[in-house]
Amino acid sequence: MSLFTRLKRSFEAFAVTERSLSIAHAGKWTVRFVLIGIIAGLGSIVFHYLCQVGLHYFMDLVAGYRPPSPAGEHHLFTSTGTPLNRYILLILPALGGILSGWLVYSYAPEAEGHGTDAAIDAYHNKGGFIRSRVPIVKIIASAITLTTGGSGGREGPIAQIGAGFGSFLATKLKLSDRERRIMMAAGIGAGVGSIFRAPLAGALFAAEVLYRDPEFESEVIIPAGISSVVAYCLFCLVYGWGSLFEAPYFHFRNPLELGPYLVLALVLVGTGILYVKSFYGIVHLFKSLNMPNYIKPALGGLCTGIIGFFLPQTLAFGYGFAQMALNNELTIPFLLFLAIGKIFTTSFSIGSGGSGGVFGPSIVIGGSMGGVVGKLFHQIIPGVVAEPGAFVVVGMAGFFTAVSNTPISTIIFVSEMTNSYHLLLPSLLVCSVAYLVGKKWTIYERQVKSKVDSPAHAGDFFVDILQAIKVQDLMHLVQDVKLIPQNMPFREFREFFCETKQHYFPVVDPNNRLVGIFSSTDIRGVLFSQGIDNLVVMRDVATFDLISTTPSEDLNSVFQKFTIKNIDSLPVVRDDDHGVLIGMLNRREVIAFYNEQVQKMKSKSNT
């Protein structure tokens, strides 16, 4: 067998081994993401069932109020026939508030509020770590809050359930913070994608909701996609396939309709600002109250009940009313009161410390305002706006974009939830305008502006900047230094040393080619020794194990070389001939240059 044949077979065997290792690695991670999807899907199934049970016994049996359900989601229990009692609706949210408040503040205070913010904060600031008890407390407290009349959504609790298990699994497997963050985000996508029957949007949402800028956490999308598909399939196997809402066959055919859609975008931004300001205004108000924390959700529930006494449609989820708006079954006053009332019931229910999501109410609020604008324009210009229900779909997407800074995932969310893909063009216009005008406000206050501002990416950002800067960009900082001939007597060097401020001394041969280097530290011990003046030449004290850099190297490599032997200055040599010295590059000046570049980049990102 020839040498060439043996080498070829060895290479092929190595390639097969590498490929096998890569497949094994991918398979291992896929199993983990599938497992996260299974747990998130089961969590969605259990949470949905608890919500149905709670609505049946609390709202229907006790208060006699049975809110309508969306077309893709039916009540699991038949009506009890109890007549409506508004006075029970008045106090029921307060009772739910005190129960959920006691549970949350006794066992997992971080489970208060809408949940998604806590997951975002864990991603950026806690290495993806979430206490294992949080999802369990969250699911029970949220079910109590939402089924006793509290206004909120299901995505926050489910996001924390999926995220909590992803974090728990990564911790048990002793994975790195980066890997824990990815698994936690995959859990968010799986939970949200399953409970809203929107697996693609769930994966995109998990990657987009982390930042205020239109930026995706790219390494999260595929893991979240795998987990979301698994969770969605499990949920639908139990509760049936199809979208959450059923929308008529809307089409966009008239470019003139973009004018009313532009008006809709501005109306949604104004409504979104009211939503964010009222929500966090109530959050700050309740935090300032001098009373036990577990009492505050009860007070918030009482305020919710007062509104619900007059506007029962603003209590609980409200998805059925969004379905009715899609079917053009509600009047303009009803839609307007539903939207405004929902803003305040959600703010009181969740802002006071209750447990529930804010995405679900946003769908109802946005759809209602879309219905109001659509119906008004249909009355004014029926030839242009022929289908007011289309504005409901676009309003859902535009409103949540305005309050969450997630334009891309929201467009997909609403398209999947309504099974309406023919309104992508007006949705894109409305979401783009809503994002640009309303980006200053967000319901997710834990979002950071971009990866530059995320502690989770501090190290990545550092390395990225260093790798983008080459030594040739710092040539103005490279200093000319005195070259020391290798045969220079020590006596002659000592005279030179007394007159220089130089700390590193390149040693060259008779042809002025770099052969070694030494520092003032290297010769300090023998500098004033007697009897070596003519016995020692500088070649004897130099080190020939040179650590140097070239103009084409990046600063990441330069810093690594600085730290190898804790040296403060590097010789810069030519790329094509390492024997030709260009000059010396000092660590202190490199650090100053890096800090200057960071400040410039931060200044640009803030403008």
From TrEMBL:
Species lineage: Bacteria, Pseudomonadati, Thermodesulfobacteriota, Desulfobacteria, Desulfobacterales
SUPFAM superfamilies attached to this UniProt entry: CBS-domain pair (SSF54631), Clc chloride channel (SSF81340)
Domain CBS: 477-534, 542-601
Classification via Pfam families: CBS, Voltage_CLC
Residues that span the membrane, as ranges: 29-50, 87-105, 182-200, 220-241, 261-286, 298-322, 334-352, 358-377, 389-414, 420-438
InterPro entries reported for this sequence: CBS_dom (IPR000644), CBS_dom_sf (IPR046342), Cl-channel_core (IPR014743), ClC (IPR001807), ClC-type_chloride_channel (IPR050368)
Keyword Cell wall biogenesis/degradation: no
Name recorded for this polypeptide: Chloride channel protein
Predominant localisation class: membrane
